[in-house]
From TrEMBL:
Role, per record: Catalyzes the glycosylation of 4,4'-diaponeurosporenoate, i.e. the esterification of glucose at the C1'' position with the carboxyl group of 4,4'-diaponeurosporenic acid, to form glycosyl-4,4'-diaponeurosporenoate. This is a step in the biosynthesis of staphyloxanthin, an orange pigment present in most staphylococci strains.
Name of the protein in question: 4,4'-diaponeurosporenoate glycosyltransferase
GO cellular component, one term: plasma membrane
Transmembrane segments: 278-298, 304-322, 334-355
CDD domains per UniProt: Glyco_tranf_GTA_type
Residue ranges that the Swiss-Prot or TrEMBL entry lists as coiled coil: none
Annotated family: Belongs to the glycosyltransferase 2 family. CrtQ subfamily.
Subcellular location: Cell membrane
Length: 381
């Protein structure tokens, strides 16, 4: 049985490696785009709750952009720290900034989704950028993004940022997460107009006002913790033109400051990503364990055929891992050696997040509890 399972995983890794090698060729670096000084009004919408620690630095890099035809709509989502005061101060010194203070969350909405939608309602631009309050931008990020967007006649564009991390195990976990995200979601398919696979990344989701309204805005995503991803999927389902680009030196975000916080952060969207199905949880746990943990041990098997099969599995696993790491991170490919441990950590995070979701009867996000019944009710078909 083990021999059969490893044979199946080998076929999967061979296919995934070829798929990624071809797909990454279509993932263009935004750094190569031509900067534009003039263009459509860009409305940048930033939703924040208790982000006082990061907000100032992020806004400083945004307001220093070389693309000047920009306005900012900053939405303070019921913050209990200095977030609102920081926004008000920035508004006083820069006339391009508007501030919205959300005092109460309407029933049937996740806080962030509601805040982004409220920001859109105050936006004037024909081009919208949804971004997070902890993203750091290179001065030419907007100008290159608008230039690329206009040149290719896009409806939606998302960008992969540099996910920074300091502690070793956090780096290893981030690298593993991106590795898994790549072969599971195959983000490069967003650049294939014949594919219905779409992608969206919360750090940078740029789209036309027309496209956003056509897909129904965040009103169609009221209770989706993975709103950024779902936004991109809706764009492709609507037959609109989408691109994903790499922006490793233009956009940077610290995903989480520690491994503990990363595990806590995954609580909100892990079960959503598995479609709220126990069967998907079990399948994911089993699949990751067999394909990314077992070969590291069975390579030492006394059975020569099993040992060789495990070795070939690890070769293709390593090729794919290194490919993803070099394309989507600035981490060392040698983190591959920690893969069986980060795989087990990821399995733990899936089980933990699913268990806590059931135990709590839902998720707690940005200080508000959302029941599992509510989340499942608004699940996209």
């Amino acid at each position: 049985m083990l021999f059969i399972l490893l044979t199946l995983t080998l076929l999967i890794w061979i296919g995934a490696t070829i798929d990624a090698a071809l797909g990454f060729r279509k993932l263009e670096p935004l750094e190569d785009a031509i900067s534009v000084a003039e263009g459509p009004l860009l409305s940048v919408i930033v939703a924040a709750r208790n982000e006082g620690e990061h907000l100032t630095q992020s806004l400083q890099t945004q307001l220093a952009q070389t693309y000047k035809n920009t306005e900012w709509i900053l939405v303070n989502d019921r913050s209990e720290d200095q977030t609102g005061n920081i926004m008000d101060h920035v508004k006083e010194i820069d006339p391009r900034v508007k501030v919205i203070h959300v005092k109460k969350l309407p029933e049937g909405w996740l806080g962030k989704n509601h805040a982004l939608y409220k920001g859109f309602q105050e936006a004037s631009g024909g081009l919208i950028l949804f971004t997070d309050a902890d993203v750091i931008y290179h001065p030419e990020a907007f100008s290159k993004a608008v230039g690329y967007f206009e040149r290719h006649g896009l409806d939606h564009m998302t960008a992969t940022p540099n996910l920074s991390a300091k502690p070793f195990w956090l780096k290893a976990f981030v690298a593993f997460f991106l590795f898994g995200f790549s072969y599971y979601k195959r983000p490069w398919l967003a650049n294939n107009p014949r594919s219905k696979t779409g992608i969206g990344i919360g750090a940078f989701n740029m789209m036309t006002r027309t496209a956003y309204e056509k897909i129904g805005t965040h009103e169609q995503l009221k209770m989706r913790p993975d709103d950024d991803l779902q936004l991109g999927m809706m764009v492709k389902r609507a037959g609109l033109k989408q691109r994903i680009v790499a922006a490793m030196s233009l956009i940077e975000v610290e995903w989480y400051p520690s491994l503990k916080e990363a595990l806590a952060g995954l609580e909100k969207n892990t079960f959503a990503g598995l479609h709220y199905r126990i069967s998907m949880v079990l399948f994911s746990v089993f699949g990751v364990f067999i394909s990314q943990v077992v070969p590291f041990f069975t390579i030492f098997s006394g059975n020569l055929a099993l040992s060789l099969l495990s070795g070939v599995n690890l070769i293709f696993l390593a090729i794919l891992y290194v490919m993803v790491t070099k394309k989507m991170t600035r981490f060392s490919p040698w983190l591959f050696l920690a893969l069986p441990f980060t795989a087990m950590l990821f399995i733990f995070s899936i089980i933990r997040a699913s268990y806590l979701t059931f135990k709590r009867g839902g998720i707690v996000w940005r200080g508000t509890k959302y029941t599992l019944a509510e989340l499942r009710k608004d699940k996209l078909k």
